[in-house]
């Protein structure tokens, strides 16, 4: 069976991507299932999410000789001029909770009707044999609430409210979240690209 490498060690991301691509007849693996050393990391040196996704896809794809799907995503808060953006995973040292608590503190004086935000995900798929790369993007609008809610998901999920469902990402099942999320939207496009361009 052919393999598709998801260029991350983030278990939450791998789970979401595996669920979305479950109907493909291929083995979907993360970096922990390759022979790369545990401490091998690619420097995300680009100034855009697309740039970082491309860097990771090409380097990990060439290292493993596997078709590689890489994703870079971030939270863009309207009142912070789009921050934390590409710095979302590095916004504060420590845990996901440390990062979202820092963000909540930064916007504590912003009124409820001005707390709009969006998650953006950019996916790159790279085939090292053909040296071919394709990208796509998904955007998911919502708002930042004042107190974390829910225990599902990861990252900023407990503070990001889907206003239609009146649920945070962390209160949704994986299926619910994949239906509406930035990553889910980008993955729907990536599925078409993989079928059309990569014959998987």
Describe this structure in words.
With 200 residues, this protein is α/β, with parallel strands linked by helices. The chain is 30% helix and 24% strand. It contains 5 helices and 7 strands. It has a 7-stranded mixed beta sheet. The protein is globular. The mean pLDDT is 94.
Strand order of the largest sheet: 2-1-3-4-5-6-7
Helix and strand run: EHEHEHEEEEHH
What is the CATH top level name?
Answer: Alpha Beta
Number of domains: 1
Percent in strands: 15-25%
CATH architecture: Alpha-Beta Complex
Mean pLDDT: 94
Topology summary:
Blueprint: E1 3-6, H1 11-20, E2 27-30, H2 49-64, E3 67-77, H3 96-106, E4 116-127, E5 132-144, E6 160-162, E7 167-168, H4 174-180, H5 182-198
Parallel strand pairs: 1-2, 1-3
Antiparallel strand pairs: 3-4, 4-5, 5-6, 6-7
Question: Which structural traits does this protein have?
Answer:
200 residues, alpha/beta, Maf protein, 24% strand
Q: What is the structure about, briefly put?
A:
This protein is an alpha/beta fold and 200 residues long.
């Amino acid at each position: 069976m052919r393999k598709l490498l998801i260029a991350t060690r983030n278990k939450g991301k791998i789970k979401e991507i595996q669920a979305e691509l479950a109907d493909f007849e291929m083995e979907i693996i993360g970096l922990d299932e390759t022979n790369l050393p545990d401490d091998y990391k690619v420097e995300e040196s680009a100034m855009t999410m697309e740039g970082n996704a491309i860097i990771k896809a090409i380097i990990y794809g060439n290292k493993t000789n596997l078709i590689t799907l890489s994703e870079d995503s971030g939270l863009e808060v309207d009142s912070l001029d789009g921050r934390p953006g590409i710095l979302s995973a590095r916004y504060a040292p420590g845990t996901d909770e440390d990062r979202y608590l820092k963000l909540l503190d930064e916007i504590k004086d912003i009124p409820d009707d001005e707390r709009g935000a969006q998650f953006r995900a950019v996916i790159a798929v790279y085939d090292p044999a053909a040296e071919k790369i394709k990208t796509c993007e998904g955007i998911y609008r919502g708002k930042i609430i004042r107190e974390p809610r829910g225990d599902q998901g990861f990252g900023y999920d407990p503070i990001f409210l889907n206003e239609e469902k009146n649920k945070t990402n962390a209160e949704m099942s994986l299926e619910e979240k994949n239906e509406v999320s930035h990553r889910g939207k980008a993955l729907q496009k990536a599925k078409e690209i993989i079928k059309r361009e990569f014959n998987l």
